[in-house]
Amino acid sequence: MNRRVFLQRSGMAALSAGWTGCAPPPLNRSAASSGPPSSCPVLRVRLAAATDPAVGKILTILQDRIQTRCATAVLAANTDAQLIFDLDERLPAEAFRIEQKETAVLIAGGSPRGLLYGAGKFLRTSGYDGVFQPSTWRGFSNPQGAVRGMYFATHFHNWYHQASKQEMARYLEDLALWGVNAVMAVLPMINLQGWKDPQTEPAMAMLRQTVTAAREVGLQFVTGLSNALFAGAPLHIRATPLPDPTRRRGNSGHPICFSHPEGRAYILDTTRQLFENLVDVGLDAVMFWPYDEGGCACAPCSPWGTNGYLRMSRELTQLGRSYFPGLKTIISTWMFDTPPEGEWQGLTRLLSEEGEWLDYILADSHEDFPRYPLDQGVPGGKPLLNFPEISMWGNWPWGGFGAHPLPSRFQRLWDQIKHVAQGGFPYSEGIYEDMNKVVAVQFYWNRDQSSRATLEEYIAYEFGAGVASEVLNLIDTFERTATAAQLKQSVDVDAVRHAAAAAEALHQGFPEWVRNNWRWEIMRLRAILDHERFAGSGLDSPAAENALLRLIELYHCQLESQDPYHHRVRPPLRRAVSLRGKL
Ligand SMILES: [Zn+2]
To answer: How far is residue 469's CA from residue 480's CA, in Å, rounded to a whole number?
Structure first.
């Protein structure tokens, strides 16, 4: 069915249904002139599996995404449907199929989650030029990686810490449409004194809100556990600081010694209370974390990675399973063997003796992937997950200059492990690296999907058709600029100037829905700020100040903050202050 036929058909369907409540298409779009001037393009969707409330929720998500982008109204309808949602239990649970069924497009999922992923593919491959042009993509898709997580670092009053319930729910929906199936978040104990701290209850409520929002789109919930707990933990049970020759183990938290009897009791008791706070909303998996923050260098805990850490993780697993019987466990090896202490080797030895309690091993580093699991095999033969750091490399403060896409970097790192990784949990400090998130989750879905192909789909869906190559050029310039800054090399000032002009030209040509899309706004602000930083009059210029202020608004940052870590996630506007100093 070509677009004109589709429009006529949908217009007639709307009339026959007596539906007249839609706004006329915007007059400045070319598509408006191809339909009758008073036509009301409608997309009629039939829910073949209407008894499942999760399917109704997917219709609401589709409706919202289409109606935000164009003048087409999306309606549930039992007759004359142009789109059909169905569940097909013969498909793998997370798989979907999109096919032509007479005059309609059928999206079938192996479960509501599979259907949601199919709806995502359908949305991203449809057109929105004035009115809706349904996707012509047909086929079957089944994820290769079983764990397609996202780690929201909910602390420092960053976006995850500050977002409203509605914003968080919407963002989780957006990520789920791309194939995410698990979200991880923690109680920000680093910012809290203890359970009685007046800030703890709101922080717990926020964490529970994240879980509830994740559940609504069928995502699993994962939390992190370590020996770094509340800032107000008693001093006499604190861990012995670690040797840290590379300065990347992160000694800024408040770790507790697991070998101190009162320390062990404090860790078990604090974790028990955390579980009790999550019993009603549910917990699917825990991720144990060794360093940054965490660890203890005392003799009975050393070497932490294969001694105190493993003893603690095993005990917390038992405790967790008494609350959540199906609880899965992920053990992180972050910063293992830096300096070399035989931690990887020790983990292999211990898991060969006793490893049933553990489900996954997670590995990664700030730079290249650790060699041990690639060269020697994954300890215990467990499935391997990665943990790409998508937020902090090449920008400071994190997200401080807007969008921060690094598709070439993540392609290179993925290529080192794509033959063995079964998924992962990108580490995220905010929404500014949204592009890095979708690149990573699409790697997990299909290990051979290139970052560039993912971004082409992203650009068409978020910024409209016909601008992919221009936006990809912008992304390339942003990545090259960030890389030069990170490596202390000189920035290509001509490219920065060109990117700023190109972003402005794109902005002038974009329809309203793209201009109002925060994903475009942070791209444009990045172009402006890179220009002011490297080719203009610096961050004090009026253009830069306006851009920084707008980012502060988008991220819900505080201009005056009591949080000594907030400056790490707040755009560097000169008049913004940290009242309790900067850690
Ligand atoms: Zn210790």
So the answer is: 16
Tokens standing for residue 567: 């400056």
Instruction: Identify the CA nearest to 371 among candidates 428, 316, 431, 416.
Output: 416
How many beta carbons lie within 10 A of that of residue 566, not counting itself?
A: 26
Residue pair 475/410 in contact (Cβ under 8 Å)? The answer is: no
CB 370 within 8 A of CB 364: yes
3-state secondary structure of 578: strand
Contact between 333 and 343 under an 8 Å Cβ cutoff? The reply is yes
How far is the centre of ligand 1, averaged over its atoms, from the C-alpha of 265 (Å)?
Answer: 13
Residue from 541, 473, 532, 481 nearest 503 by CA: 473
Q: What residue type is 61 in one-letter code?
A: I
* Ligand 1: centre distance to CA 258 (Å): 5
Lowest mean per-residue pLDDT among 36-45, 78-87, 288-297, 370-379: 36-45
Q: What is the DSSP string of 165-194?
A: HHHHHHHHHHHHHTT--EEEE---GGG---
pLDDT tens-digit map of 321-352: 999 999 999 999 999 998 878 999 999 999 99
Question: How far apart are the C-alpha atoms of 59 and 47, rounded to whole Å?
Answer: 8
Q: Give distance in angstroms: CA of 261 to centre of ligand 1.
A: 10
Beta strand 139-141 with 96-101 is: antiparallel
Pair 317, 301: CB distance under 8 Å: no
Q: pLDDT digits over 90-107, tens only?
A: 999 999 999 999 999 999
Q: Which of 466, 531, 536 is nearest to 503 (CA)?
A: 531
Cα 262 to middle of ligand 1, angstroms: 11
Q: Report the amino acid identity of residue 3.
A: R
CA angle 184, 461, 64 (to 5 degrees): 75
Contact between residue 267 and residue 288 where contact means Cβ atoms under 8 Å apart: no
Q: How far is the CA of 238 from the centre of ligand 1 (A)?
A: 8
Q: How far is the CA of 568 from the centre of ligand 1 (A)?
A: 29
For residue 264, report the distance from its CA to the centre of ligand 1, in Å: 9
Q: Tell me the mean pLDDT in the region 209-234.
A: 95
Q: Bridge partners of 384?
A: 361, 421
The alpha carbon of 179 is separated from its chain's Cα centroid by a whole number of angstroms, namely: 11
Give the helix, strand, coil percentages of the chain, each rounded to 5: 45, 15, 40
Structure letter (DSSP) for residue 404: -
CA 213/CA 224 separation, integer angstroms: 18
Distance 257 CA to ligand 1 centre (A): 4
DSSP 127: B
Instruction: Let me know: does 368 contact 338? Beta carbons within 8 Å.
Output: no
Q: Residue for token digits 């390339």?
A: 476
List domains and CATH numbers for the chain.
3-141 (3.30.379.10), 226-387 (no CATH), 461-578 (no CATH)
The first and second tokens of residue 581, run together, are: 């100093």
Tokens 């069915």, residue located: 1
Which residues crowd ion ligand 1, with CB under 5 Å?
Answer: 257, 259, 296, 298, 301
- CA atoms of 161 and 78, how far apart (whole Å): 42
Alpha helices in 418-467 (DSSP H): 434-445, 451-463
